[in-house]
Design brief:
By secondary structure, the protein is mainly alpha-helical. It is about 65% helix and about 5% strand. Helix 9 runs antiparallel to helix 10. The two termini are about 55 Å apart.
């Protein structure tokens, strides 16, 4: 709660200002602890902490405590940044922010900063709850929540792009450029950072989507043992003289239960998430390849794609063509998917990487 008074005054500050505010709170906490002792100063303790950070012989308990302190500071920083961005949206500011809208490419440092913020915010309890049920991220900040967890996460990622200084649409294109078109220029550390980012975002949305599934109807935890296993609707239509003229066990269409639609939407979301995870895994494999190996793989994928289309077109429409289309082995399926994904990325980048394939 030490940052509450600082938070209430902010509406879009630079990341350095947030860091300085966080550092000030840490110094105030340290001063309160040091004040209990007469033979030590704040500067002396700061120097000891600095030396401990690089010491190979640090006590395990002290090391764990320092790691916890640093982790708490990182999460607090992520919370400050996220809250500031949502305050900006809630305030309906009319003044234009100074954002990179395409003047220069995204730098490595900015990409690492963005990845760190994304990885941090999904660990915050209020963010996890927001992804699960759409509740407010911050009690005192008005916001409009998208309907589905995936869209809520996308919105958070968008405002964090803005926080590191980029127009949302341009920033998204720059991240795609790093992911799919600069693979041969990325160092191993950055590749790992991007892979971790993708994995953490997938896990975040997967966890919250799974939490949203409907629990089995049961009153076991209320002292009983009965369960609802089925419900059948029926109605009888009588003539004026009281004779039954028809009956049905089908509920009227207008009585469609909303929960069924929600379950269907959740099922579709899970399938989309699984497909996205598979596609990302394939692209990650391509990124981790050496340039010659990747060129060879893409060339093979293109050849398999062309051969597949040619053979399919040579077969007349009907059962034989259907049998051919459904007889593709897993290795060919993967190569066809590689070609499709890479071609899609080329088209999104206006063919700038056409020489890659």
């Amino acid at each position: 709660h030490a940052l509450e008074s600082y938070e209430s005054k902010q509406c879009v500050c630079s990341l350095s200002i947030h860091r300085n505010a966080l550092l000030q709170v840490q110094l105030e906490c340290l001063s309160q602890v040091v004040a209990k002792y007469n033979d030590v100063t704040v500067k002396q303790v700061q120097q000891v902490l600095k030396d401990l950070g690089s010491s190979p012989n640090i006590n395990n308990d002290v090391k764990q405590a320092m790691n916890q302190m640093n982790d708490a500071a990182r999460l607090a920083f992520c919370r400050l940044v996220l809250r500031d961005e949502y305050m900006w949206d809630a305030s309906q500011q009319t003044r234009e922010r100074k954002l990179n809208r395409g003047e220069t490419n995204m730098t490595r440092a900015d990409l690492v900063e963005y990845a760190g913020l994304c990885n941090g915010v999904v660990r915050l309890a209020n963010v996890q709850k927001h992804l699960k049920d759409g509740s407010r991220l911050f009690d005192d900040v008005e916001q409009t929540s998208p309907m589905f967890p995936l869209n809520r996460l996308e919105r958070i990622q968008q405002v964090l792009l803005r926080a590191v200084g980029y127009d949302i649409e341009f920033g998204k294109k720059e991240i795609e450029r790093f992911y799919f078109h600069n693979a041969s220029q990325l160092d191993k550390e950055l590749i790992q950072i991007l892979n971790n980012l993708s994995s953490n975002m997938t896990n975040a949305i997967s966890t919250e989507a799974d939490c949203g599934t409907t629990e089995e109807l049961s009153d076991q935890n209320q002292g009983g043992v009965t369960r609802v296993v089925s419900v059948t609707y029926s109605e009888k239509i009588l003539s004026p003289d009281g004779q039954q003229v028809s009956s049905t066990t089908s509920a009227p269409a207008i009585e469609t239960i909303q929960e069924h639609d929600e379950e269907e939407q959740l099922s579709q979301l899970k399938m989309a998430r699984q497909a996205a995870s598979l596609e990302q895994a394939i692209l990650n494999d391509l990124m981790n390849m050496s340039e010659p190996r990747r060129q060879e793989k893409l060339a093979l994928a293109r050849q398999i794609h062309n051969d597949f289309l040619r053979q399919a077109m040579e077969i007349p429409p009907g059962p034989d063509r259907i049998a051919f289309l459904t007889s593709v082995d897993p290795d060919q399926q993967q190569l066809l998917l590689i070609h499709k994904l890479w071609t899609k990325r080329m088209q999104q980048d206006d063919g700038k990487v056409s020489a890659t394939v």
